[in-house]
Amino acid sequence: MAVPEISAPILIAASAFCNEPGVDRWGFYQFPVLDRLHDGRIAVTFHINADSARAYGKGTAEPNRGISADGGATWTLAFPTDPVAGLALPDGGRLRAGTADITPKPVLVSELNLPPDRGTVFGTYGNQPYVTYRHRELPPSLQGVPVARWDEAESKWKPERARLDDPELLRASAEGVFPVVWWGDVNVAPDGSLVGLVYPCRLEGAEFGHWHCGAYRSTDGGRSWQVQGRILYRPDRAADAHADRRDGFSEPASVVLPDGEMVAVLRTTDGTGTGPLYLSRSRDLGGAWTPPRVLRGYGVLPRLLRLDNGVLVLSSGRPGADLSFSFDGRGEIWTEPRSLVPVTSEDTQFDSCGYTSLLALDADTFLVAYSWFRQPAGDGQTRKAIFARQIRVRR
């Protein structure tokens, strides 16, 4: 088994304030996302706002993007104005879908004419109420999938609202606003169609009490999406004593292997406490899924990357941030996690937000971006900071 070569941490940005004692201002200098820019450079965009539905689509007063022209070795700070490359489509076009940065600003519930609600669910973080509605009965502005398509003639991304065909789907308001959220990985399948595994997905009836993840397929370049199947919340109660109290499955990561099989990793950690990561598979582009099995006992926002050399990479965190590798190329066997930041507290939010991002540089090399809340700032104080590392791994 090859031993990964992991570079020293490369600082991208650090907050101007010190966060002792403890970690304050949750949501600031967190949640990094790696992208290739349209001109080939690399960007890491991070959150400098409250972790709130009311912050979706909201800008910042200070630069929240690092840009690198040398493969992540050095970085400069900027506002996120230069366009990202997006997902390359088989027809030569480019699309952005399933990402938080194209999520529209939420609308105040008080300004909406909504249909009868289908019930309220209280989330595990702060007993937050989510008031649910049938997707098909919502106003057009609250239906569909927010996407953006690259306009070559005007050299810019243009927002669209793709049609979403899912008669059973519920969407919810929160914090007095109604966001339109459709987050998860979108993959190009071997047949040229697009397949996304996304959340949140809530259903009426017996499944109402938990989040699930939905698989959707598009055969028209992302202009419409049809539900294929779902990964319903089916926890392993022997592995998780709090399984029945959890919100459910969220933050799915997915990749499509060369033979068309999809591999997905799902989060369950929530306000109830640390929960397992689960793994599931589909051989029919998201229609049917294997029973989810526990992959490890913790983790938020798992990220998956398949390198051209066949190695699968998994990053996650909380506590800390870490990497695992599957040298079988199928995610059947994984290495033990390799930590990227020191874990110094039993509080899983003390050292890092645990959110990571992955980007391939070549067949054997990739970047990982993550947060570290304990960057030394002098006089014994620390700052929240965003870092990257270059990783080389051979099969």
Structure description:
The chain has 395 residues and is mostly beta strands. The protein has a single domain, classed as Neuraminidase (6 Propeller), CATH 2.120.10. Helix content is 0%, strand content 45%. It is built from no helices and 30 strands. The strands form 6 sheets. Strands 7, 8, 10, 11, 12, 13, 14, 16, 17, 18 and 19 form an 11-stranded mixed beta sheet that branches. Strands 1, 2, 28, 29 and 30 form a 5-stranded antiparallel beta sheet that branches. Strands 3-4-5-6 form a 4-stranded antiparallel beta sheet, with no helix packed on it.
Spell out the key features of this protein.
395 residues, mainly beta, Neuraminidase, 11-stranded mixed sheet, 5-stranded antiparallel sheet, 30 strands, 0% helix
Describe, in short, the structure shown.
The protein has 395 residues and is an all-beta fold.
